[in-house]
Q: What sequence folds into this?
């Protein structure tokens, strides 16, 4: 029986051009890692807006930044608390990290992010996703 000699080692195949690599997190080390190794920074979705806005002040002014925005159009705080309780085990997170209410209130938060130098906002409806996205397109995005 003859054995063929097989040589194998881990090989990385990197596409050229490489897709952008964004780093997230909340710790100072995560922000530093994003700048040193990445093409952009995205917050941890569970970071409150005010904390995120303070965190990004540590990044270079023109470094790409993104924020995940958990949201719901309408007076839906109890339903958001239910979702955060089911998803994170912490219903109180809705009060700390989510945006809910009128189209203008949500547009104001998106504008607040844009004015702080945020390049991308990931709109994340937490329930009735299709209906919420339709309303976002019709009632919120024209305001920003």
A:
């Amino acid at each position: 029986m003859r054995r063929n000699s097989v040589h194998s080692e881990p090989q990385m195949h990197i596409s050229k051009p490489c897709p952008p690599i964004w780093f997230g997190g909340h710790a100072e080390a995560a922000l530093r890692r994003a700048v040193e190794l990445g093409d952009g920074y995205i917050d941890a979705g569970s970071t409150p807006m005010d904390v995120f806005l303070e965190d990004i002040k540590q990044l270079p002014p023109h470094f790409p930044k993104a924020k995940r925005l958990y949201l719901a159009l309408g007076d839906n705080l109890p339903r958001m608390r239910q979702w955060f309780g089911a998803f994170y085990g912490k219903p109180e997170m809705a009060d700390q990290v989510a945006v809910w209410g009128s189209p203008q209130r949500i547009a104001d938060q998106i504008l607040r992010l844009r004015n702080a130098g945020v390049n991308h906002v990931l709109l994340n409806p937490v329930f009735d996703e299709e209906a919420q996205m339709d309303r976002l397109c019709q009632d919120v995005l024209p305001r920003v």
